[in-house]
Amino acid sequence: MAKNAEPKSKAPAAKTPARKAPSRARARPTPSSPPPIYQHKPAGASFFELSRLMVVGIDSAKGQLIQKAQLSPNGPWPSAWSFIAPGAWVIMTAGLTRDGRVAVVAQPSGTTNLSFITEDANQIGPVEKWTAPMSIGTPPGATSYQKLSMARDADGRIEVFVTDNQGRIWWIYQNPDQIVQVQKTITPPGTTTPIVVTVEVPAPPAKPWSDWIQIPGGLVTVSAIRQGDGRIALFGINSNLHLYRCQQAKARALKAADWTGWVQIDTTQTGGFIEMAPVIGPLGATNLFALTQSGQVLHTRQMPAGSDTWTQWATPGYSRASNLALAAGIQGDGDIVLVAADQHFLQFNAQWDAYTQNWSGWRDFGASLRSTRLTLNYNADGRLALFSLARMPDGTNGLWTINQMGIDSSEWEYNWTSLTDNNLKQIVVVRDLTPPV
């Protein structure tokens, strides 16, 4: 009889790290072990040697599902975009499979069914190949979608979260492996007589994906992140700009009851929020940075890591002008870097010490001449890359990128690399651990 395979190990309980002795020097000591975020990368993947950045997007003119990736780790970008799947597409999200391949969930034009696509696991040669779109169905009653988000769980399985046209929150996940009994013939040590034994072995699930499950609540947008202990946390904003959080109550969540309840985390003093940027910090705790209606960046984090206890709101630095966009990322040493944009300037704010929550303060490093959406991700050498999806006069979006000059550097490249001057509708930046060779 088949049964679900249990995780190889329970989600580790988060431990509060010992406090480092304070240093009078501003330079921070090099971490003695990889930051927690790197300890959960797909098994067998060599991050610094293999990874490259990839932009997955939808173009505005024809609705095509497209991608553009670095030609090599830390390398240049090609001039042309490549197709992922034929046809027109409405909305999408992207992430990674258990073995580090890029995965995409998207809505084809003309249907509410969502499709799942991955890089082909058997591709050989330098040309990117993708699997054929596989339908994962439609949440009951959904006629359109406001936001899609994807994260890997404690088992490495992909979980997808959706807010539909009614603000309902839906969840679907790759089913866990099942355990099946098989008979094997062995010859016990010290004998010459074979015997037949029954053993339990993992096997693919009979049904690849779960049914769509509704998570109670109502949101306009939702963001999922895999936490340091493997459990997924969700953050969401509703139509009244209230901000909420919840997380999986167990490492293997299979039903709505396996989630904690939603906790409203905005206050009368913070007011409503317009953007959120969750990230895992160097101490293994989930950090949430969020942009208020007044354009200030506020910060709250788990304390201790892995718990459902969070700090009160704090400011990593006051902005004299109202920010309109926000991104949070980690650089190669695991430290957090923020980038924000107001009507005139781009600013960054680097975390100097996670124990004391010491920050560099906001520093201008570029001009922001258009309405933009920002994304941060790191290169194979650990330097951050900033992507700016900027609104153009024709109503479409162009995309540009620059890199940090080095890990922990306050310098950024002066010249932006254009990935396209217009005609983009939406993008997600992912780090491909299995590029074609």
From TrEMBL:
What is the official name of this protein in its record? PLL-like beta propeller domain-containing protein
Supply the InterPro entries for this chain.
PLL-like_beta-prop
Q: Give the residue ranges for region: Disordered.
A: 1-40
- Compositional bias (Basic residues) at which positions? 17-27
Sequence ranges assigned to domain PLL-like beta propeller in this UniProt record: 222-430
Source domain of life is: Bacteria
